[in-house]
Amino acid sequence: MAVCARLCGVGPARGCRRRGAAREQRRGAADSEPDTDTDPEEAGGGGVTEDDEAAERIEGGRPLPPSVEAGPAGRAPLSLLELPPELLVQIFGSLPGTDLPSLARVCTTFRRILRTDTIWRRRCREEYGVCENLRKLEITGVSCRDVYAKLLHRYRHILGLWQPDIGPYGGLLNVVVDGLFIIGWMYLPPHDPHVDDPMRFKPLFRIHLMERKCATVECMYGHKGPHNGHIQIVKKDEFSTKCNQTDHHRMSGGRQEEFRTWLREEWGRTLEDIFHEHMQELILMKFIYTSQYDNCLTYRRIYLPPSSPEDLIQPGLFKGTYGSHGLEIVMLSFHGKKAKGTKITGDPNIPAGQQTVEIDLAHPLQLPDIETLRDFSELSRIVLEVQEQVRREEQEREQRQEEEEHSQQAASQPASPLGGEGAEGEETAAGAEGRTQDKAPASQPFVLPMGVISRNEDYPRTCRVCFYGTGLIAGHGFTSPERTPGVFVLFDDDRFGFIWLELKSFSLYSRIKVSFQNAQAPSREAFDEMLKNIQSLAT
After folding, report:
1. Which of 40, 96, 350, 378 might form a disulfide with 149, Cβ 3.0–4.6 angstroms?
2. Which stretches of sequence are listed as region Disordered (predicted)?
């Protein structure tokens, strides 16, 4: 603050600069009146003065009088206060909006200039991407400063990607600035089994500025239009929504009409079209469970996985087929020689937040020719051999670690050379992966073995590379979970598959091609912590 005061000529340094200029000192004394307000809503308050009239001339594009275009006696300005107001508007408009309240505390002149809507219009555009014609706000009496302070800045912490706490089912919410609204869009997978179709989305809530007092929160759930709602920001990475008029969610036909409507939206069909009895039970169970959360929901922040040049493909969000449970959303992330698929949406067997698949990138698989691949027993033999190899390597690694610990405790013998052999073994595994990909063609024929069930028969018939992996299976209610061997199949940059050996089932995954804003993790550590948190909540 002291630096700002010296720059603008306020404070002890001012007398030195303008010694002998009594008239300018008197004006400076008035301008240096302190202001203690730090809220962006108040930055730029005050009565109508000559500075306000200058600001209005800036807004209207009218020329300023010559007296404000240069310092006294035509010399170069010695402080910011001597600069033309239109130049100060440009300078202030380039600063982050969160810094402007502090700037307004320097003096009343700065505070009055900060009432210029041009400054706040620029901050709305550059910080939040608001491209609407904000001049139309003048009709409603709402200023760009109001939009920035009471809408955008106030609710900035809820922008980004979130996972709703809906038991095992989870979900994907994207909160964005959309024109002069902040809208929470719930993203839904396409109807089963069309995994390559685009995502569906529907609004759950919206926030907008109806008048200058405060922003209005509206619930968008149901079929009767927007109605009164409430948002509570619990902490930086968690918030909750509440509907104050749940009668808007009900239908005149009762629960049966609500279920039929939900079924058409969720599955794109009627219950009579679903002949599998177990699938009917799962659908009815999901409707009953999720209906309990139509009036109040809690959301926790999730990040998109960070990427690096060494990644097999670009990490991100994918839609995947999960048998009778339909399509679910999975996040693919890379962690050194491992890749993980974490459920963002889930089901009663494997809930949202759990790690559905893990890929061992140090153990690529060389598939047999296309005819031999049709034999499930042959594929199973190859995978089980690699599983045994992985088990032996883990035992050897644990044994080396124990021997190193004993050697360090003894302190009478040099460190065991087995540690170096372990590092060499890891290099060999990495080299084996590279050599396998070098020897393999750019694409090779692929077909599912006989007896393997796939919800989508329209899977790619060529693949790039395959790796050994494990998949998580469990009983209803996530009982007796265990990891079973499988095959990760990379088809192209946007599609991969997983063969579950024990289930004799195949899941096909397709990339979600949506550009999500405010969803990047601030660091790798923050992303890993987020994965750990959502998994612990699911457990």
Report:
1. 40
2. 12-73, 393-443
